[in-house]
Fold these 4 entries.
Entry 1:
Amino acid sequence: MSHRPVPTSQRLEQVRYEIRGELARRARELEAAGRKLHKLNIGNPGAFGFHAPPHIQQAIADHIADSDPYCHQQGLPEAREAVAALHQRRGATGVTAGHVFLGNGVSELIDIALRALLNPGEEVLLPSPDYPLWTAATLLNGGNPRHYTCAPENGFLPDPEQIEAMVTMRTRALVLINPNNPSGAVYPRELLQQIVDIAERHRLVLMVDEIYDGLLYDDAEFVPLASLAGDLPCLSFGGLSKVHRACGYRAGWVVLSGDRSRTTEYHHALDLLGALRLCANVPAQWAIPAALTGPDTVSGLTCKGGRLYESRQAIVDACARSQRLSVVAPKGSMFAFPGIDTHDLPGFDDYQFALQLLEVDGVLIVPGSSFNVPYRNHFRVTLLPSAEVMGEVFERIEAALQRVQSSVRRVVSAA
């Protein structure tokens, strides 16, 4: 009897998520063999010594006895009211607790939001670079991802004219990530207004990933998209993972704002899909009101002297000293997206460089091409390590680049 492999979904053929892919698997093998690694591939605060604030932890402890039953598919009323109040203060139109959906992190809610919207072959406009879950979720829900350019030479900000030129009769949604992952770009108000105007002219649904809304550096200003969208259908995604350093809680939300006459049917679709998965993790939901009404615990990390700020500065300084590295200083988020000057390194490949950096130098990064960009000379690192560790990491990256250059010279000399 033959033993044929179990076939998998054809939709997975185009899905990539190198953040936790082959390089991460190789890193686990090296660690199992006793290697000590610097793993900068994931923005996971708890793995770098950060902790959720005590008042958030206490909120869960105080309500653990109330967490045994399922809750409503949209989430606990207390938590949804706290999220709604935040978005009301930010100027979102028509938002009540009934327009808030809580999920097991933003990742689950991105999938639900796209599944509720898309028919086969319909298009979603996505940034390039993007957080690859957005492209993957579009593909897995039968959609066609189309990427608009956020070029490094433009500070990783998009060109509204290019976005509008990409709209077709099949375009359903326009996605933004602000502050951006992986680039750290923060979109100015004027640019956001231009994007809103495009969505209005073409009747597109706006979707904005704002999970890093409180992680800002220098003079960067976060402008909530819903405050500009007004009556337009707009989904705003947020959660506790990053600003409140509680990734493992898997506590996220999406807020549906805009004219109710245009969003009612879509609201019902989100509610149905939420009901099919019963409800989100209940204990973590108790942390949401405490987080959104409690003290500011993140500004001290992102101001001068704060740990995230100084780690960011260590990257900026290392790239300034380097003959090959450059970086657009992140204005927000907990990532940087450095570029490598490869003009005299023919055949340079970001994945192979990352693999060599891991194998030889013990540093795990994410190749830039994993973020749906056409170039192969960038990489992403998290800002979570200390500035001292970051300095050591970039010394190893510099050494790896020197090895690549020496290898090219040997090949040229031999020829």
Entry 2:
Amino acid sequence: MSRALFPVTVVTIVIVALQLAILSNLRFVGVVVMLVWLWPLAMGLAGFTALGLWSALVAGVFFDTHASTPFGLTAMVGMVLAYAASRLGKEGVGDLDSAAWWVAPLLAAVGGFAAPLLYVIVAFLTLHFATWRAGTIPMMGVNAVAFLVLARPVSRLARLVGNVGVRVRR
């Protein structure tokens, strides 16, 4: 895990840069696709609990320092997604090789659907009432579809980066 920490951090920072420079300006039905939530979820589905939590923390903190969001909330949602996905990834449920081809995208779509709702609920509980708006429902739908489409390639990247430095016995 420690050998993969640096590559995971670098890829996470690149993903945050893509999120801020490109995806934050692209809107589908008025909604931004949150790649900073998909990346930790994919790390979790690949079975890397600690790396998934780390990537969620790094992505969330860097994203929140550049966006007008409550600080730490993006990281918290990403960590919840990463942890929940890692429980499924450790059991092999979200594995790209042993599970059916549609399982990982379906799990990612569920995460994409739940993440905006979790974000709004926690923001409301922490007295940030401005996060609730009429766009929450479309945000849930757009992120679910985007996560469904992007799940397999992002999960493959997560597995590739998470396995850096792992020796295979022959």
Entry 3:
Amino acid sequence: MAKLSSINKNERRKKLVKKYSGQYAKLRAIADDESKDDTERLIARLKMAEIPRNANPTRVRNRCEVTGRSRAYYRKFRLSRIMLRELGNKGLIPGLTKSSW
């Protein structure tokens, strides 16, 4: 199980991303639009820099829903490889069968 502080920190980041997502998207669109003035684009970049760093979507880490483990994460199931195997062996994940050869 991951440290509770790491899990909580990631949850706080998710909330910040959600809070600033609209503002961040608008500024990002202006900053990336090459048809606009360079000064206007620069102003948008400076405003983006004023937004908290943890509001950037790339700072959110994918974590296992059960254990909070951040590595070996399967997006489709939202689980780590360890929990995927355990729950799959118990038959708790529909459509998942353990292969053997």
Entry 4:
Amino acid sequence: MKTKTLVPFAEGAIWARIVDPQTGGLKSASARSLLDLDFKPADRQRMEELAEKAGAGTLTAQERREAETYNRVAHLLALLQSKARLSLRTRKQR
């Protein structure tokens, strides 16, 4: 993930600088635990519903905020899991 495309003060860019997903450094057990994290089926279903409504242009203001929240959480999860994958890959290469 390239943080240069994000606005430097945007929440995602700040998290990317904190997590620094382009470097490893996590212990194997921690990395595997992060890779086990995922959305529950009900949350996935809700995200799909919101995405469909967004595609149709029928989101309410509250639904738009909900979709943005899911997006931020998914982005942070992706950053953490990227770091976890790199950490495990780096350990295997040693």
